[in-house]
């Protein structure tokens, strides 16, 4: 009875509270990487320092990745970062997602300018399809 009053579907009432959601019957579970935040993989102080280092029109993705410690990360952890940045879960970081990539590292991150976005895309998109796949992202990080 309590489960019904709380709006929890009966099928989920036996789950521990941390796993219950009133939306669980209508929404699929989040991809594991979507639950992850960058600070699970990277040091917040390194992220802040790197974000502060790049004013408008000065963003350099290779230097940024090095400053936050990604260059030394395993391919598996770079993939986890990629999955967080791939907001729509398409398997690619498209130009529209790329503009907001710094917000993926910190809510205080700024938007990239159009010129920075295009330069980032050009640096990473080796096959010219207009988006960055995981292999292209990893190659740029470890370049």
TrEMBL record:
InterPro entries: EF-hand-dom_pair, EF_Hand_1_Ca_BS, EF_hand_dom, Parvalbumin. It comes from Amphiprion ocellaris (Clown anemonefish). GO terms for cellular component: cytoplasm. Belongs to the parvalbumin family. SUPFAM superfamilies: EF-hand. CDD domains: EFh_parvalbumin_alpha. Residues 73-108, 112-143 form the EF-hand domain. GO terms for molecular function: calcium ion binding. The keyword Repeat applies. Ca(2+) 2 binds at residue 97. This is Parvalbumin. Keywords: Calcium, Metal-binding, Muscle protein, Repeat. In muscle, parvalbumin is thought to be involved in relaxation after contraction. It binds two calcium ions. Pfam families: EF-hand_7. Ca(2+) 1 binds at residues 86, 88, 90, 92, 125, 127, 129, 131, 136.
């Amino acid at each position: 009875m309590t489960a019904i009053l709380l709006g929890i579907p009966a099928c989920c009432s036996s789950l521990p509270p941390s796993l219950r959601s009133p939306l669980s019957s209508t929404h699929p579970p989040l991809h594991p990487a979507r639950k992850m935040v960058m600070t699970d993989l990277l040091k917040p102080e390194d992220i802040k320092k790197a974000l502060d280092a790049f004013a408008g029109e000065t963003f350099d993705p290779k230097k940024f990745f090095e400053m936050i410690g990604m260059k030394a990360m395993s391919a598996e952890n770079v993939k986890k970062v990629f999955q967080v940045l791939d907001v729509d879960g398409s398997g690619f970081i498209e130009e529209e997602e790329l503009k907001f990539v710094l917000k993926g590292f910190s809510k205080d991150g700024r938007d990239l300018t159009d010129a920075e976005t295009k330069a980032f895309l050009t640096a990473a998109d080796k096959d010219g399809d207009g988006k960055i796949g995981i292999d292209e992202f990893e190659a740029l990080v470890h370049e």
